[in-house]
Amino acid sequence: MRLRRAPLLTLLLTLGVSAADARVRLGESLPAHPWTAAEREVVVVYSHDCGDLGDLWDAVLASGLPVRAVNAEGIQTPAPAGLRAWDGEAATAFARKLRVGAYPTVLLVQGGRILNAWEGTFTGQLE
């Protein structure tokens, strides 16, 4: 029998296994954004040169939390069906105010503050 993780636990494990050093500061408030904040949400900041993010989107969407897609750096790249990506200069300014060091960056946000951050290439492996 194969052990299955709960979607939120899977997301937390994904965020906790980081090969990159996040420059985003935990505990800080999110910069201004165009969406209505939820109590707990996931923010994915990505750009056109991230490659295939299918596995990452699957893990994030399986969390059951509201997901916000931020497409930075000026080249439109679609988010998965059902998600509307915020893009343009304001989205890039948002990423820079966060001090994103690598795309994609996934933020777990609670009460408007960054609870956890993960930056870098997602391989689909949690362990």
Notes on the structure:
Strands 3-2-1-4-5 form a five-stranded mixed β-sheet. Residues 17-22 have low confidence and may be disordered. By secondary structure, it is of the alpha/beta class. It is built from three helices and five strands, in the order αβαββαββ. The longest helix is centred in the N-terminal third of the chain and has 10 residues, at 7-16. The chain has one domain: Glutaredoxin (3-Layer(aba) Sandwich), CATH 3.40.30.10.
What brief labels describe this structure?
127 residues, alpha/beta, Glutaredoxin, 5-stranded mixed beta sheet, 3 helices, 5 strands, 22% helix, 22% strand
Our measurement of the CA-to-CA distance between the termini, rounded to an integer number of angstroms, reads 19 Å
Fold-level CATH name: Glutaredoxin
The CATH architecture assignment turns out to be 3-Layer(aba) Sandwich
CATH superfamily: Glutaredoxin
- Tally of individual domains: 1
Class per helix and strand makeup: alpha/beta
Order of helices and strands: HEHEEHEE
| Most strands sheet | 5 strands, mixed
Helix content: 10-25%
Explain the layout of strands and helices.
Layout: H1 7-16, E1 40-46, H2 54-61, E2 67-71, E3 85-87, H3 89-98, E4 105-110, E5 113-119
Parallel strand pairs: 1-2, 2-3
Antiparallel strand pairs: 1-4, 4-5
Keywords: Signal
Organism: Deinococcus arboris
Protein name: Penicillin-binding protein
Quick structural overview:
With 127 residues, this protein is α/β, with parallel strands linked by helices.
